[in-house]
Amino acid sequence: MILKFVFTPNVDDFLDYQKFRLKQTKIANIYYFLFAFMFAGSIYFAITSKDLTYLISTAIFAVAFVVIYFYDRNIKIKKEVKKYQKIDSSYLTANEFILYHNAIEINTVKEEGKPVIDTVYPFATLRAILETDKAYYFVLANAEVRFVPKRDIGEENIKIISDTLKKIPNYKFVK
């Protein structure tokens, strides 16, 4: 065993993960490109035809884009957090993190009346290990993600974890 500590993720950590995941899918770039293309086309047609209908449709399109963007970035993510919380309440409970040379172990902290979940994840079974400024994300083979927020970890422990994980081939630091 290299390191052992207790962390408690909260809803904001889960929201940060969902926003990180959305950013990594690059779907927002497609939205921006489509919006810019349609907006430029509408402005061009409004100027060349001197018809205000294109400006009105552009304004309606811009409002719709802002609503969709806000929904994707805020409301939809919050709904996903509530859904995952109902499916697996262990995501937002106190967990014990143990780092080994070849694996990590994430266990729920014993609480009266609740089952203890002990899970060992060998590095070979992890699809990806992602580190951001706020957390570590461990992506499992079944696309499940376990996240460990950095705010519960001391600076020297963050350095120990990062140095150990950097040796793993599927490790990546993402800004």
Description:
The chain is an alpha+beta fold. Helices cover 49% and strands 23% of the residues. It has four helices and eight strands, in the order βαααββββββαβ. The protein has a four-stranded antiparallel sheet with strand order 1-2-3-4, with helices on one face. A hairpin with a 3-residue loop joins β5 (126-131) and β6 (135-140). α1 (11-25) packs across α3 (52-87) and α2 (27-49) runs antiparallel to α3 (52-87). The radius of gyration is 22 Å and the shape is elongated. 13% of the residues are buried. The mean pLDDT is 86.
Secondary-structure blueprint of this entry?
Layout: E1 3-7, H1 11-25, H2 27-49, H3 52-87, E2 95-99, E3 103-108, E4 118-122, E5 126-131, E6 135-140, E7 145-149, H4 155-165, E8 171-173
Parallel strand pairs: 5-8
Antiparallel strand pairs: 1-2, 2-3, 3-4, 5-6, 6-7
Helix pairs in contact: 1-3, 2-3
